[in-house]
Amino acid sequence: MQNFFVDEDIRKASTISSEFYTSETCFELSKEKIFAKTWQFIGDTDEIRLSGQLVPQTILPGFMDEPVLLVRDKDDKLNCMSNVCTHRGNILVENVCQENQIRCRYHGRRFDLNGKFKQMPEFENVECFPTEKDDLQKVPFGVWSKLIFASIKPEMQLEDAIGEMQKRLSFLRLAEYKLEPARSRDYLVKCHWALYCENYLEGFHIPFIHNSLNAAIDYGTYTTELYRYSNLQLALSKGGEDVFDLPKDSPDFGKQVSAYYYWIFPNIMFNFYPWGLSVNVIRPMGTSLTKVSFLTYIYDESKLDRGAGAGLDKVEREDEAIVENVQKGVRSRFYDSGRYSPARETGTHHFHRLICEFMNK
Ligand code: FES
Ligand SMILES: [Fe+2]
User: Fold this and answer.
1) CA gap 78, 115 in Å, rounded
2) Closest residue by Cα to residue 259 from 211, 318, 219
3) Closest Cα to residue 65, out of 152, 140, 189?
4) Average of per-residue pLDDT across 271-284
5) How far is CA 230 from the centre of its chain?
6) Is 107 helix (H, G, I), strand (E, B) or coil?
7) What is the pLDDT of residues 65-96, one digit of tens each?
8) How far apart are CA 269 and CA 259, in angstroms?
């Protein structure tokens, strides 16, 4: 694998080499180099409200496939731990349940709700046993209001990843947002995961690809703000309708904000609209296949299907069609990289720079 390089100065820079999208080796390496070290969105606290509840989750199924277990203990505290038995590696909890301990059904090893080893049959003469290695490993996790994040070996604090979004949107009543499964869905897109992300990271294509979205937002005022591991695209409304009712202490007070589009490196998008939130989790499935999960959280149903947050399914199909085309293009022997628009592609440049930083380590 080559050392990837994208110049810090967008005016001088070329986009990341197409090897990143085409190479199976890069795809495999990105698991440990990028995805194990960053934060993933793994659900919300509505699924785990009662003490003693055990909720098995998998970090990025089909890619990272890391089994973790969310537990609400007897003191009502949330824990996140490995869902793999420390004896011979059985998956401990397969379905949501409520228990006062964790018991492996393979050979009966038991743990308390904090993952501490408690007891194991037929282990009387085993030396140096039990040790800490027999406890379930803790998985770093954190909660923003009701949204739960976890990471395998985080290279940054959760706050470094989502802190800017948390601060800017502290006025939202996130605890009242409700996941609406009927309005959530998965899309299979025939492209590399990074192509899907970089398309999201620029509004440059909106006037070309999305006519209905272009009619709702004022493209001239569309801005991108970059942070260390995240960025924000701010879309203002054309008509002054279907905008956020912002408090005076918001830095955006007085603006007609129709959407906050937050992206968290490497693969999560939080799109806030006056009606609620659409979380997009981009799941790599192969160098040419990506599963995109749209999770819809509703706050104010009366505002659904209006403004920038309307017709998301149509916008999604328009994006899919174009990135599937780009997927074919980046595999061409005649293409390796291109240049950036300093006015319109700072988000994509930021993303490529982060990929280089993580892949080259
Ligand atoms: S694998 Fe769990 S007790 Fe043997
Ligand atoms: Fe788009």
Assistant:
1) 12
2) 219
3) 152
4) 97
5) 11
6) coil
7) 999 999 999 999 999 999 999 999 999 999 99
8) 12
* DSSP percent split of the chain into helix, strand, coil, nearest 5: 25, 30, 45
Q: What is the pLDDT of residues 11-49, one digit of tens each?
A: 999 999 999 999 999 999 999 999 999 999 999 999 999
Q: Which of 60, 63, 37, 5 is nearest to 287 (CA)?
A: 63
On the CB side of 169, CA atoms within 13 Å amount to 26
Instruction: List the one residue out of 150, 170, 172 whose CA is nearest residue 161.
Output: 150
Cα(201) to centroid(ligand 2), Å: 9
Tokens of 187: 């899309």
In the chain, the amino acid numbered 47 is E
- The tokens describing 291, both together, are 């599963």
295 is written with which tokens? 């999770």
Q: How far apart are CA 341 and CA 233, in angstroms?
A: 16
Gap between the Cα atoms of 117 and 6, Å rounded: 48
H/E stretch holding 97 reads strand 97-98
Place of tokens 């939080």: 270
Q: How far is the CA of 186 from the centre of ligand 2 (A)?
A: 17
Taking residue 55's Cβ as centre, other Cβ atoms within 10 Å add up to 22
Task: Show the tokens assigned to 324.
Answer: 């599937």
**CA-based nearest residue to 232, from 262, 204, 252:** 262
**Residue keyed to tokens 């490529």:** 352
Which DSSP helix (H) or strand (E) runs through 40? Answer: strand 40-44
User: Encoding tokens for residue 222?
Assistant: 């569309």
Which residues contact residue 123 at a Cβ distance below 8 angstroms, ignoring those fewer than 6 apart?
Answer: 129
Task: Name the residue of 82, 85, 119 whose CB sits within 8 Å of the most ligand 1 atoms, as the mutation to test its pocket.
Answer: 85
Residue whose CB lies within 8 A of the most ligand 1 atoms, among 69, 88, 126, for a mutation test:
88
